[in-house]
Amino acid sequence: MSEEGRHTHATAHRAPSTCPVCDSSLQLTRLGCPGCGTEIAGIFEQCRFCALSSDDLETLTVFLASRGNLREVEKHLGVSYPTARQRFGQLLDRLGLGTEQTAPAVDRDQVLADVASGQITPAEAQRLLGGG
Known about the structure:
- InterPro entries: DUF2089 (IPR018658), DUF2089_Zn_ribbon (IPR053957).
- This protein has helices at 3-10, 54-65, 70-77, 81-94, 108-116, 122-128; strands at residues 28-32, 39-44.
- The chain is mainly alpha-helical.
- A two-stranded antiparallel sheet has the order 1-2.
- It is elongated.
- Mean pLDDT is 79; it is low at 1-8.
């Protein structure tokens, strides 16, 4: 690899998904080749995963690596199973893949136990239980 190519990869940053001035969604309008300098301009479709936060990407990676095992996501997040399901549901919603019919049932006793043990905050418990 050329010195220029190595430099490009070393300084690569994650592209923002929203405008820092007005918070509108940004459009991908230019692509460039670090090898030969070719540039292509237009309006290109964004990757739906590129707008996810680093935490969401890590959670999704754990889910995929564990072949869909939410118990592994639970361990990774350090939360109860209902909380892991709820957070994964929110991740699916951010990807446009969630549906109201598949919203996970929340075990009230488990949520209260999670608050008592300090695994979740009272505000998060209230949200899980539909109060906020």
